[in-house]
């Protein structure tokens, strides 16, 4: 990938047998249980439910003769549904693990991100290449570059950061709106993600970018504005954006910006001291892995360690893999970061923000 900045290098694994051992055990787990690593019927059923809910809720908000308060409540649930579509449908498809045999399925379903306003091509470049390779590395992993926040010790400490453990909730509410209407266009016109040039978009990618942005604007802005009037549209849309941004931000931050998770620093030789496998475990955390609802809603993102080590495996299998990964980490002396519940993880995130808000 052509870059403006030079990407850091990882330490070579050498004689470290951690990942070869883990990979062999995971492969045996799937062979023994005679299951495929890709999506199953539950994955597709969930995708259908989330998309059907979006269609039904949208129709009720725009066309149904129901009270205004009911429409606002539905806008809240559409915002949650947008986030769930991203967590479940787009995310798995973006990693190509719906199907290895029929890759067009992944190419189609990843466009669910375009349906909810963002752009799949830009997201895949940012997420699959930069985030998953250089997790929690300042100036590379854009997911930890949040305007107004200090979540990494290398980021400059400002006076207002001492209040970030309080105002975070308001900033997170803007993330989805800024993603759709600012960040995507900035990446598109500059050809860069966090200072790194990404491969030139093909004609197909340009067409999809503009066509999907136009479609989103038509069905999420023009139709509601025309049918409902400006003020009802504005109230519903801003509420939807705030809820979606809050849910997206919280789920992703609980996986990488909590106590006990590493914030590695690149040395003067532009190197990272650990090999990639160990780096991924150290910079990632699981949370609420015993909660079936959170696992269902988050698309397995609460099993973030398993996801970062095995992106090619669909999220429905992470719960079965987790004991194997945890045992292997303990065997090789690698800390397996895990918060027991969602509230534990949220509390840890807030504590982390409070600490970095005052500590140099």
Keywords:
360 residues, mainly alpha, two-stranded parallel sheet, two-stranded antiparallel sheet, globular
Describe the sheet with the most strands.
Answer: 2 strands, parallel
Order of helices and strands: EHHHHHHHHEEHHEHEHHHEH
Q: Give the fraction of residues assigned to helices.
A: 55-70%
Number of helical elements = 15
- List the uncertain runs: none
Strand order of the largest sheet: 1-4
| Multimerization status | single chain
Globally, the shape reads globular
Structural class: mainly alpha
Description:
The strands form 3 sheets. The chain has a two-stranded parallel ribbon. A two-stranded antiparallel sheet has the order 2-3. Strands 5-6 form a two-stranded parallel ribbon. The protein is mostly helical and 360 residues long. The chain is globular and about 65 Å long. The model has no long low-confidence stretch (mean pLDDT 94). Strand 2 and strand 3 form a beta hairpin. The two termini are 34 Å apart. Helices cover 61% and strands 3% of the residues. The relative contact order is 0.16. The chain is built from 15 helices and 6 strands.
Topology:
Blueprint: E1 9-10, H1 18-33, H2 41-63, H3 68-94, H4 103-109, H5 112-115, H6 120-133, H7 164-172, H8 175-190, E2 192-193, E3 196-197, H9 203-228, H10 230-256, E4 271-272, H11 276-282, E5 286-287, H12 292-298, H13 304-309, H14 318-331, E6 338-339, H15 342-356
Parallel strand pairs: 1-4, 5-6
Antiparallel strand pairs: 2-3
Helix pairs in contact: 1-14, 2-3, 3-4, 3-10, 7-10, 9-10, 10-15
